[in-house]
Amino acid sequence: MLSSLSKRTVIMTGSNHQNMKLAETFKGEIDRMGGQATIIDVVALDLPLYTPITEKKNRPAVLADIAKTCDEAGQFVVLTPEYNGGVAPALTNLIAWLSRNESADFRQLFNGKSAAIGSASGGGGMHALVSLRIQLSYLGLNVVGREIVVNSSKPLNVDSVAVVVKTLCQ
Fold it and tell me: Of 63, 136, 137, 156, which residue has the fewest beta carbons closer than 10 angstroms?
């Protein structure tokens, strides 16, 4: 059973294929343990590319709801495929938009909270996770040590998801 302080989890997925399936597995495990999880399909948001000019001219209205959801979260699960050795562009773009919130502190939505990371990718996935760990740590998230990797030579171990969720919510 999860502690009452850690019940709300935001799951962000940088693709809506294998990483969405992984997100649903995480959500199922969080629900099973008595928590609450919200999945954000970053690709479906279809956000414009963040630039300072775009921010001034065309800040998407949906960001206010996502920022509120992130602000109220106790922890995060962030999932990404590996794109050319890095994080999915749509996920990095959402993180850029969220770090440009109304607060003077770009870390406001994430600072001091926990995060788990994972990748479902045709290739390895590990390069993307190294980069993602650095990026999320910079935003103030405490990224748990164990990560989930699913690829063509490594199928998902559902028991590992349970261990990561338990660690995340301690």
Answer: 137
